[in-house]
Structure formats: C-alpha cells, structure tokens
Amino acid sequence: MTDELQIHRVVTSGVLGAGRPEYPPGGVPIENNVFVVGDDSSALIIDAAHDAEAVAAAVGARDPLGILLTHGHEDHVNAAIALADRLDTHLYLHPADLFLWEETHGVDRLPDFELADGAVFSVGGHELATLHTPGHTPGSVSFYAGSIATLFSGDTLFEGGPGATRWEYSDFAQIIESINTRLLTLPAVTTVHPGHGAATTVGAESPQIAAWLERGW
C-alpha cells in the first residue's frame, strides 16, 4: 500500500430546479461537495456537480480513473458529461437511478458503467468499496475506503441525520435501514464526507438514530 490517500473537497455552486414548476421561480441556490480522491499520479472523482472546470482543476495532471456518482439527482450529475469529456474518463451510476439521470441529460448520452453493491475501485494502492444505500433515491450508493476509515455518503447520511425522502421514489424507512445496517456498522472513527456540508463521523451520528426515527426525517 502506498501513502495515505489525498482527499480534495471541491465545493461547487449552482441552482437546483430552475424552470421546474415544483421549485421557486429561478430555482434554489445550492452548494455541493465533489471529492477528488487519489495520490500524486491518479484520482477518482466522486460526483460531478455544477462546475466541470473547477473539478478538473483539482484533478490536475493526474490520471482520472473514473467519475463515481453517488446518485442521480440533478445537482450531483449536472456537470457529469462535461467533466467526463474534459477528463476523457468514464461515468459510473447505479442503474436504479437512471431515470433521474435522464431527467437531466436525456437518453442520448448515458453513464458508461453500472455501479453494483460491492464493486471495488482501486486508486493509489487503496480500495473504495461501493455500498448500495437506497432511500434518498433507489440507486443511492456510498463509497467506503476502509484502509483510511473514510466514507463518502452522498446524500444518504449527513451531520445530524439522513438525506431527504420527500419524493415519491424515496423511502424514509429504507434510508434508515441503509444507514443502520450499512453505515453505522462501520468503525466509529470512520470519517463521513457527505454530498453537502461538513464532515462528521460514524461515532457522532450513531447515537442519534432514535431521535431521527422519532422526528420522522
């Protein structure tokens, strides 16, 4: 194994839902976390939000091994095609979220490969394992780098609770099950990097699950 992985958080800004009737006129401003994970020679990119050039700049001259999408929501994939073209690399998405991808990008250009539970990606002598964690969306996944006790949770787990489940395809009971059985079973010291906002740890979030259940979100 090589040295510890470098994790570069790129905070990108955009507007969610512009022109859609279910959102306010002009949409909703939003910031996303995009993570570039690697060493001095290669990198994996987790999510592709808003600003392909900013993410490409963080990758730099390193070999881009792929763009791993935590789920298909617009704000996590809207820069995916531009970024894949800019870096000349592949896109990975769980097939259960393809319908969400198509809402943003249509059907003419689809992700290159399907993510599956247990799929492993190697970078810098370390491995990231794919964990299918549905609930926020049917195809939501998280990526776990066990060698450095780090989890990239997308919109499944945040500091203070689970991701939103307000859509007809979402399921609060399912996201709780995903968090409880797939994420909170990881070591307490595991750092959790979500798709928005600050990092947390498994140990900090585990005691709160009863409160989340009581409040219902």
Automatic annotation (TrEMBL):
Domain Metallo-beta-lactamase: 31-196
Record-linked InterPro entries: MBL_Glyoxalase_II, Metallo-B-lactamas, RibonucZ/Hydroxyglut_hydro
The protein's name in its UniProt record: MBL fold metallo-hydrolase
